[in-house]
Amino acid sequence: MADTKIPLVDYLSLDGEPHLIAQECTSCGAKYFDRRNACAGCFATEFSPVEVGREGVLTSFTIVAFAAPGVKVPFVAGVVDCGGISVRGNVINTEPDPDHVKLGMPVRLATYSMGADDHGTEAIAFGFEPA
Amino acid sequence: MSASDDIWILGINMTKFGKHPDKDIVDLGAEAMMAALADGGVTMGDMGILAAGNLMGGGGVGQQLQKQVGQTGIPVYNVSNACATGATALRTAIMAVKAGECDMGIAVGVEKLAGAGLLGGGGTPKKDEKVWEPSGRFGAVANPDGVIGTNTMPGVFAQIGMEYGHKYGGTSFELFAKISEKNHSHSTLNPLAAYSKEMSLEQIMGDMMIAYPNTRPMCSANCDGAAAAVVVNGAKLRTLSKEQQRRAVKVRASVLTTDPWEEACQVLPDVNTLTKNASAQAYESAGVGPDDLDLVELHDCFATAELVHYDNLRLCEEGGAVDFFESGATWRNGATPVNVSGGLQSKGHPISATGIANIWEVCHHVRGEAGDRQIEGAQVGLAHVIGLGSACGVHILEKSGL
Description:
The complex is a heterodimer. Chain A is mainly beta. Chain A has strands at about 5, 10-15, 20-25, 30, 45-50, 55-65, 75-80, 85-90, 105-115, 120-130. Chain A starts with a strand and ends with a strand. Chain A has one domain. Chain B has one domain (about 5-115, about 220-400): Peroxisomal Thiolase, Chain A, domain 1. Chain B has 13 helices and eleven strands. In chain B, helix 1 (about 25-40) crosses helix 2 and helix 5 packs across helix 10. The longest helix of chain B is centred in the N-terminal third of the chain and has 16 residues, at about 25-40. The relative contact order of chain B is 0.19. Classes of the chains: A mainly beta, B alpha/beta. Chains A and B meet through strand 6, strand 7, strand 8 and strand 10 of A and helix 4 and strand 5 of B. Strand 6 (about 55-65) of chain A pairs antiparallel with strand 5 (about 210) of chain B.
């Protein structure tokens, strides 16, 4: 069995302390989590990777109680402002109810295992937990 | 043919929204087209263009509809633009008439959605072997829906309302539920609505939670339906009968926008900027302001969405949507009645029909033909629609002065 880890998405880096990586437009500073042919804001074509801060503020959320088959509910989906970069993620490690999840609450990046595949590779997911 | 700057709705119709198990999209679309042509006192022989909107039916609905109502060889544009599909079809017909390619055109939007369930959150097919293998634009090894946020429409629009609350304060579960209470109350006067039952605040808040703070009655109702509109230029209209001229509705503005790049639009769709842009363009081109509107039909796909569009359409001051709603302004007896049809939460949301059905509602009032739910003396109204991705249609309509 191989003892390897793979991130849930390619913009989650597991090198050192886990963190997110955005592609920053070298011309206007706009940041993207996927590949772009040109910057959607200024049309420039050069990008360079930048590290996204691990701490942020929850600027919006919903508590999903009804989802596609196979998706565990309830869960908290939200948007976190990490120092000027908006990140999409779940709020984890707290009760998924409006008494525990509040607009404007400080949160930080956290990772957890999604289990191993048949080759022993472990997938690592991220979320945001109350800070 | 003559290019003419003024564009009019000559005939318009929406089918009953709801469950139509015995009709397919061609039956429903043809029903709306035949009725819109009859309403305008014209036939397919008068039409120079057909723009047909449908999202879930597999394509080519325009040609199928021609075979039902009249094949004359005119150009057909099959359009698809998410929930703004109907408005896009109408705008396509308007552009052709405005460009002088023809004097009259017809637009139709049709959808069958009854029983479609939750939209937006797709499942993943099961494989025999479990292997974490990156795929897609984010190199995801598993379906991120439910792990990295939500793709479900009730969840996305819940966050759009909550984001407004974070920015300006004053929102609550109860506030959003009260918006839904208003629309369900309005729907009791609309015989074409899919659901026309009064619902108390307690019933709405106590119903099944879908995505906090949206409970089931706070979500748009998936249903079947169609709507169609005939457009004509002013020069041609003036050659038609006095009765046709009197009932025609003037299109004071027809605008379609998409979302310009904004910092957060990659993680949560931005339905605000493009609506602000569309309404600003519409008010400018119509030469009217929000205070001139006698009624507004806006895209309340979820109760949480209606709130933000009060602000985006400048019905209130920036950041003032909560106070504006709580003043009672958007009830049918208020200063700016919003969604007197019952809105998408009650009338229903057969996606591609929605962007013409909301125009039908406004036309009905400015013609003085809205029966029990008539907004007395309505002269000018606005219809707004949003398709995620995003696209926004805004039309401003005015009573005929001919």
